[in-house]
């Protein structure tokens, strides 16, 4: 009789645990908000009430990023990631960080740039009690129930960037900054398997505003994303996104869903841990 009672108690405890875990999963949230900052990059990631901001556009986009943070009442960032110290990726943070006034972790592929814009940005970081840390490849951080992995931190070339892989459940997102040939080839080498099967990434923020490089085809075929996002300004003087890149994404054998901030405006991607849903807000 005692054994039966004990077994019954264990069964009830197990069911309660399973129900609790299920409820926790149901309550979990994950989204990526690609902010239309014109010719620049900015993406806000939310997971279970925790926030990460990747880049902040140019200085002229400061009010836009500030507005997104204000609308969502985000005073605290768990992680601030700057892909690299070009002004179209961090200039807008000077204004935006006057709203998000506390930051737990600030990462970039470099600590210093000899420009007036960087000095103003560094001053704003100091007000917030934050400083830039350069991570190493393989470092991981938690954002709620999501995981952030540092894929590449090279800063040898001007467009080299901090590359981050964000995983939520079974879904994966790759943020590439402005990486070009060398970094694209290096990352492809890292993830390409002997069987030639892709290392599946659900969504890639396209490198360098949709510019084309000789390594881009292999880079994309390594991951075969279902969705790609190009953060780019309308009528920019650089010809971004390049037509060769658009042709590559319009392949007959592989045709991912393409979203562009110049055409679609803000793009919000949500994940339930298995599948993505995307809405654009013009």
Features:
9 helices; 7-stranded mixed β-sheet; 282 residues; alpha/beta
Poorly predicted spans: 5-24
Range of strand content: 25-35%
Helical segment count: 9
Number of strands: 15
Question: Any chance you could write out the topology, listing elements then pairs?
Answer:
Blueprint: H1 2-27, E1 30-34, E2 43-47, E3 50-54, H2 62-71, E4 76-82, H3 87-90, H4 93-96, E5 102-108, H5 116-127, E6 132-133, E7 140-143, E8 146-152, E9 163-168, E10 171-175, H6 181-191, E11 203-205, H7 216-223, E12 227-230, H8 243-249, E13 257-260, H9 261-264, E14 266-271, E15 276-281
Parallel strand pairs: 3-4, 4-5, 5-6, 10-11, 11-12, 12-13
Antiparallel strand pairs: 1-2, 1-14, 2-3, 7-8, 8-9, 9-10, 14-15
Helix pairs in contact: 6-7
């Amino acid at each position: 009789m005692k054994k039966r009672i004990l077994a019954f108690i264990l069964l009830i405890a197990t069911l309660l645990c399973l129900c609790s875990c299920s409820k926790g999963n149901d309550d979990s949230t994950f989204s990526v908000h690609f902010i239309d900052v014109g010719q620049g990059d900015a993406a806000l990631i939310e997971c279970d009430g925790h926030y990460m901001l990747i880049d902040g556009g140019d200085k002229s986009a400061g009010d836009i990023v500030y507005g997104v943070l204000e609308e969502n009442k985000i005073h605290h960032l768990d992680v601030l990631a700057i892909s690299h110290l070009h002004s179209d990726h961090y200039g807008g943070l000077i204004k935006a960080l006057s709203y998000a006034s506390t930051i737990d972790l600030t990462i970039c592929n470099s600590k210093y740039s000899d420009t007036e814009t960087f000095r103003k940005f560094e001053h704003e970081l100091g007000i917030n009690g934050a400083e830039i840390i350069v991570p190493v490849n393989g470092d991981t951080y938690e954002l709620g129930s999501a995981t952030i992995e540092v894929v590449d931190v090279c800063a040898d070339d001007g467009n080299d960037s901090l590359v981050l892989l964000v995983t939520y459940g079974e879904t994966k997102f790759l943020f590439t900054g402005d990486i070009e040939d060398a970094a694209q080839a290096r990352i492809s080498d890292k993830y390409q398997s002997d069987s030639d099967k892709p290392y599946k990434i659900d969504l890639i923020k396209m490198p360098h505003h949709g510019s084309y490089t000789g390594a881009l085809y292999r880079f994309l075929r390594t991951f075969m994303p279902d969705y790609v996002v190009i953060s780019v300004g309308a009528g920019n003087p650089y010809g971004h996104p390049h037509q060769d890149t658009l042709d590559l994404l319009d392949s007959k054998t592989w045709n991912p869903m393409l979203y562009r901030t110049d055409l679609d405006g803000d793009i919000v991607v949500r994940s339930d841990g298995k599948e993505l849903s995307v809405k654009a807000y013009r």
